[in-house]
Each structure stands twice: as structure tokens, then as C-alpha cells.
Amino acid sequence: MARAEVTLALAIRNLTVDDLPGCGWSGGGLHLDSVAAELDRAALGEVDYVAVCGPAGVPVAIGGVDFAPFSDAGYLWQLAVHPLLQRCGIGTVLVGGLEDRIRARGLSRAELRYEQHLEGNRAFYERLGYTPYGTAPDGWDEQLPGGETRRYETVCVKMRRALPR
Ligand SMILES: CC(C)(COP(=O)(O)OP(=O)(O)OC[C@H]1O[C@@H](n2cnc3c(N)ncnc32)[C@H](O)[C@@H]1OP(=O)(O)O)[C@@H](O)C(=O)NCCC(=O)NCCS
After folding, report:
1. Residue 29: pLDDT over 90
2. How confident is the model at residue 116 (pLDDT cuts 50, 70, 90)?
3. 153 within domain boundaries
4. Could you tell me if residue 1 is inside a domain?
5. Coiled-coil ranges per the record (predicted)?
6. 95: Cβ below 6 Å to ligand 1?
7. pLDDT tens across 57-110, in order?
């Protein structure tokens, strides 16, 4: 089998509502509705929501930082890399871009949560210097293939990292 490698130039910019139809890979319709609502909060300055884009300007990863939950830290959430492009380093670029947004507001700590059973997420965040410090119950509505909605309940691990200047 022939093999080839490509280098991808990535840019980080704010996610816009016009990007959303092309972001179905990040979750179902309910998820995109919630991202649209977060873009309204972004317009008010409560959150930053970013897109990591390839050369065509199309998002290949998206995620947000919420400044409401903590007065002294930014809370990273809703991170997603296009499934076809996972484990290429793009998630690392996304977290770095979100951490820059935290620093830009004069804050020096990042917080996040991941679902306890997702060991790959733990490996990803620990590799980036995040430390676990407890667990918390969490839950959200999810859409089933038939279209109906159900409540999903889970346990998340809380992690944080002091951001170097
Ligand atoms: C978690 C996620 C954002 C990571 O982004 P990514 O682009 O795949 O991560 P990177 O390529 O920058 O880093 C990869 C490294 O993280 C760790 N990692 C990531 N996913 C992993 C997995 N499933 N299993 C084990 N290690 C994993 C490994 O150390 C890996 O390095 P390696 O490939 O050399 O072993 C991405 O996989 C994703 O979108 N997952 C689905 C949605 C999700 O879980 N979001 C996070 C919610 S908290």
C-alpha cells in the first residue's frame, strides 16, 4: 500500500453561525442548536467559541471557553475534532487556542470536565498538563436515531491546569 504524509496549515478564528451547517460531525441536531445558543452568548462576551480551520477555511475542530462558571478561570467545553482527523494533533492546537483566549482575559487557569469512562480523553488532557481533582454528576439531553430526545446522565472528572504566561 502506498503511503503519503501531508502538512496542514491551520488557523484559529471565532466560530460563526454560518459554519454550523458544516459542523454536523461534532454532534447531532440538538448539539448544533446548543452551539448556536452559545454563539449568542459569545456575542455578549460571556464565552469565546473557536474554530480550527484548514486551508479552505472550513472548521475541522471546534470548542468553547466559558467565563461564567469561574470568576478566576476559563472553562473549556464542547471540544470536538472531526472524526476523520482525530489523533493528528488538531485537538492539541484547539486546546492551545482556547488557553490563549483565557490568557487574553488576564486569567491564568483552565478548567474542564470529561466523562469518567472515556480513558482516551483522560490521556489527552493529562498529556497537556491537566490534573484531576474530583468528580461531579452531569447530564444533558441527547437525540436518538429515531428523533426522540432522552436525558443522558453520567459522571465527569474535573481537571484543571495553571497556565504559564
Ligand atoms: C478528545 C479529542 C478532542 C482529542 O483531539 P485529537 O485531535 O484526537 O488529539 P491530538 O491528536 O491533539 O492528541 C492525541 C493524543 O491524545 C491522547 N488521545 C487522544 N485520544 C485518545 C484515545 N481515544 N485513546 C488514547 N489516547 C488518546 C493520546 O496521547 C494521543 O497521542 P497519540 O495519538 O500519539 O497516542 C478528540 O479525540 C475528539 O474530538 N473526541 C470526540 C469528542 C470528545 O470526546 N471531546 C472531548 C470532550 S471532554
Report:
1. no
2. very high
3. yes
4. no
5. none
6. no
7. 999 999 999 999 999 999 999 999 999 999 999 999 999 999 999 999 999 999
pLDDT tens string 152-163: 999 999 999 999
CA–CA distance, 99 with 111 (Å, rounded to integer): 10
The answer as to whether 6 is a domain residue is no
Could you list the residue range(s) of the whole structural domain that residue 42 is in? 11-162
143 vs 164: CA distance, rounded Å: 39
CA–CA distances in Å: residue 85 to residues 52, 53, 91, 122, 158: 12, 12, 9, 19, 26
Indicate whether residue 116 lines ligand 1 (CB < 6 A).
Answer: no
Count structural domains, the chain.
1
**Ligand 1 atom nearest residue 92's Cα:** 12
Q: Which helix (H) or strand (E) holds 149?
A: strand 149-162
Q: How far is CA 37 from CA 32, 57, 110, 136, 138, in A?
A: 9, 22, 22, 24, 19
Pick from 142, 155, 144, 150: nearest CA to 33: 142
Beta strand 109-115 pairing with 11-14: unpaired
